[in-house]
Amino acid sequence: MWKVLNLLWILPGVLANDDIHLKFPTGFTIGASSAAYQIEGGWNASDKGVSVWDSFVHEKNWLISDGSNGDIACDSYHKYKEDVDIMKNIGLKHYRFSLSWTRILPTGLPDKISQDGLQYYKDLIKELRSKGIEPFVTIYHWDHPEFMSRLGSWTNEVMVEWFVEYARVVFRELGSMVKFWTTVNEPNNYCEQSYGGKKQAPGMDLPFFGNYLCLHNLLKAHARVYQIYNEEFRAKQKGKIGIVIPCRHNFPKVENDTESARIAFEFDCGWAANPIFSKDGDYPAVMKQRIKENSQLEGLPFSRLPEFSPYWINLIRGSSDYFGLNHYTSKMVEPVPRNNGTPWYQDSGVRSFVNESWPGCPTDWLRVVPEGLGGVLRDIKEAYKNPPVYILENGVSSYPGIADYNRIEFLYGYMKSMLLAMNRDGCNVKVYTVWSLLDNFEWDRGYTERFGLVEVDFNHPNRTRTPRLATKWLSQIIAKGKLIKLQDTYLYTQPPPPQPQAAAMFMPFFPLIFSFVILRLTGFVS
Ligand code: GBH
What we know:
It is built from 18 helices and 13 strands. By secondary structure, it is an alpha/beta fold.
């Protein structure tokens, strides 16, 4: 009797066992993503026009960590069939890629449409469909026409209607073959980096102004494109269209400081998401208030955060059929006190930093925090009434070679956290997408960071592709419809070797560095 009663103790354990939550619901799809400038190459193929990224890398290659560019990149402009074959072999169910604006409209405007440019995308889509892979098409992933940068790029409102003209051509020409559209990739991160900062094209370097103006116009452009899809194409083409926003999760430094975590979420994610997904159809209240206060303290008679008129609020509110989420990492947050009435050094009044105990990877901004994905999914569920979420980017860079154990561990941890948020907490996730299919041109990091499920040899004229270990693991997950540990697959014959730490990668060069230092010290080298 006692023994039987004793067994009851294990019941809560069994019920709480996470494993029962690790199945993917029916209809859930797993895929991979990419972006035109990062993989295509063919930068001046046929009649393609020049984009801001073409001119940026050609004129300012010192801003790219290895001085490289995307002129050839993975050469997917020529090798797309091979890419699709690889996806088919892994068993991926969808592929997210972006369109190059100047490949389709060489001048940037619809006075001229490139038939070769369109043909490339038609061929790619046909190839995907023939292998049962669903295309997810991003209309704009940061590579707008170069001449527009001389008019201020997205700080100039004229861009809004030009983007609409481009999107109209895209829907008209490709819309019958595409069911999933994304207007703009990561508008908030893009505006912060490329208008607030200078390291990525067009490199405006106008913090506190350029970033806010840029997002203001991008949200308008997004909403107008959503509107023309509804009015001119949806009835016939029957697709879904939305936007993709990068959101991190924020852990308060002091456990019950949920206020700081909320404010950090609003300034990071809510800035772009609140106008679209909340009922107020506007920037988060805390953002409007804090930026206005800061502007006043700086002596400005207006807020640096632009205001939407009621017309735009109505148009932007609800302008997305799903919440597209890109998620990589999390931050710790704490409030920064305002000193004697001076402005905060950041408009948010919240400082974010990494927890040094979080493991890293070769990408310095990316700490591995699996529970953050579940966290941000719950943040989104709460803030925006549980919208359908498409995860359109999640991934990590790996160490040289094809034994990418750190990627397998990352994907397992993040997907587990996602599945718990779905199957236990009711978050409405429909799609999961790995960044990236291939190693690619990682913007200002050039080819130094390797996010690919598939390794690409950028020194070889053929851009040889070699699938990494993670592809073999992933195909078993997809085939089983359930998340499994590497240890439970046929791939696991012995424990994986420890992954190198970033510092250890320099080990082979120590003798060299050491002799150089000695030579310097002894005066042989100056
Ligand atoms: C994605 O953005 C992009 O959409 C994709 O094109 C890119 O290849 C991929 O990342 C991987 O790099 O230096 O600490 O201020 C990811 C979003 C990028 C947002 C890095 C924060 C800088 C952080 N993140 N960014 S930091």
